[in-house]
Amino acid sequence: MRNLIKTTLLSAAIAAAPLALAGAAWAQDTLSLPNLSYRTGPFAATGIPLMNGQRDYMLMLNERDGGVNGVLLGYEECETGYNTEKGVECYEKTKATGIVTQPWSTGITLQVLPKSNVDKIPILAPGYGFSAMQDGKTFQWAYNPPASYWDGASMILQNISGGNLDSLKGKKIAFLHLDHPFGKEPIPLFQAMAEKHGFSFLPIPVGLSEMQNQSAQWLQIRREKPDFVVMWGWGAMNAGAITEAVKTKYPMNQFVGIWWSSLDGDLKLVGEEGKGYRSISWSFPNSQSPVMQDVKKYVVDAGKSMINKDAGEFEWVFYQRGILISAMLVEGIKAAQANFNTKVINAEQLRWGLENLKFDDASIKSLGLEGMIPPFSTSCANHTGHSGGWMLEWDGSKFVKASDLLQADRAAIDPLVTSEAAKYAAANAPWPVSTECKM
User: Is residue 439 part of a domain?
Assistant: First the structure.
């Protein structure tokens, strides 16, 4: 274990080194793109493959293309251990040169959010953060494409109800969640849907000290006999919950997670016994896609990746989701470069780029991302994009698509976004709200 920790710490320290070397070799301008990572601590299992994917995509572009339009991508990590206080320290440390911040925690996102209007640095939080950040008029510097947590909750309810939420009337849904801002984020939507459609909603929190020993929570689940368990887990909590579900023989086809609860490594711990477990996802791994083949050629086969080859990490949902997250950031950079006719963009120009993301079928194909992400686009008023998602299912050895593309119920979510954004602005007054942004 000591050697593993030492290796992980060393990996974190050298994470950006190959990119820096590439910069020296090309002797070009470099964009500073900090990432508030967590390769250590109880959330490292989920953090490492995501960060590896983000890093490898940028390294691939530096190696294959010499960066983006002649400018190198300066991927940099600042280790937070998923700790909010350390995350804020990392933000303060990197904001002087960084043109973006990637908080990688809803808790850190909420702490950095009020600073965004002052520091004028865009927050990129793909698939996480405060769901009301969808409202670009209120949250002018924050982006959570391609889908929010409320989108995810809505799609889960649609899937388990067979497309008719009224069919859940009289049923009980247990909500097993990390007792952290991340885990609490979808509760308002679940509560509103429970009241409207007549099902029971039972929140079951898991404290940070309980992630690996959830016997009390699963005793409650056995006693309550819910029709479904929805998991909002992260890090060691996911593995703990999945192994406990198998141990207590909870029906895996009634156990569904958010997209951060679909780590291949967690399900490999239980193998065949995890068969039937599902997770909503806005991404899907496609190792044969052109982009993944280029990552393999220029980074993995060249010995420049930090992935765990023995574990098959290259094929994992999380590693390839990290690829997609960096692709979103890079497309924002390219849009800003084109619009402002400059190669070395600043933070304010990147903000424009992030609210003009266009991942339609044509651009997805041109980027080599076929089958990996649904189409979506952002705008001045819509910072999420609402790509929809697929339900993934563990088949005993890997995740497979188990549904057509699902879409969140905008009629249910948009009024809640408007309400929560207004509450946030009032609670943090004076809070600037754009009057120019219309669509």
Answer: no
